[in-house]
Design goal:
By secondary structure, the protein is an alpha+beta fold. It folds into two domains: about 1-40; about 40-170, no CATH class. It has helices at about 1-40, 45-60, 95-100, 125-135; strands at about 70-75, 105-110, 145-150, 160-170. A four-stranded antiparallel β-sheet has the order 1-2-3-4, with helices on both faces. The N and C termini lie far apart (about 75 Å).
């Protein structure tokens, strides 16, 4: 009788430990997925690159050009003809800067992402839509610059897009 009780007690303890381990694993794997997704956004290297792009664009784009809409497209390589850079042009500062930094798209938009709804996002690339949705909404009255960078993917031929955003302009 005592041996049966010890066996049953051991089985119950193992079951409880298994349940705890499964719960820990599921929360840990969710955390890893979020970290992997977030690692493509706003890391130090891309914030620094975005600061360079921002400083240049603040000096050449008047605020009246972008302050009348939810977002303003400075350039993008994949959707329209407003290319960020051309491989054929050399000696142009903006072209060389965007080419060197591997800028794929630059957007100026309102800081408060609550004011941008799903219908407004249909003009963006899918990865850009995901990035904008990941931004923390605030009621701040300012603009932000969102820059999309293309990175080489050594594992496949599919490019990886990385993002960073900073405050832009003088509004606020």
């Amino acid at each position: 009788m005592k041996k049966g009780f010890i066996l049953l007690e051991t089985i119950v303890v193992i079951m409880v430990l298994c349940v705890i381990l499964v719960m820990l694993y599921s929360s840990y794997s969710n955390l890893l997925v979020k970290v992997k997704k977030k690692s493509l956004y706003d890391n130090t290297e891309y914030i620094y690159k975005t600061n360079i792009v921002r400083n240049y664009l603040e000096s050449v784009i008047p605020e009246s050009e972008y302050n009348s809409s939810l977002y303003y497209v400075v350039c993008r390589n994949s959707i329209d003809n407003n290319k960020c850079y051309s491989d054929n042009i050399t000696g142009n500062y903006e072209n060389d800067l965007f080419k060197f930094l591997k800028v794929e798209a630059v957007y100026i938009m309102l800081w408060d992402t609550n004011s941008i709804n799903s219908n407004d996002l249909t003009g963006f690339e899918a990865t850009t839509q995901n990035y904008i949705k990941s931004l923390d909404p605030t009621n701040e009255s300012a603009f932000r610059i969102v820059v999309m960078y293309e990175e080489e993917n050594n594992e496949t031929d599919i490019p990886i897009y990385e993002y960073a955003s900073l405050r832009f302009g003088s509004r606020g």
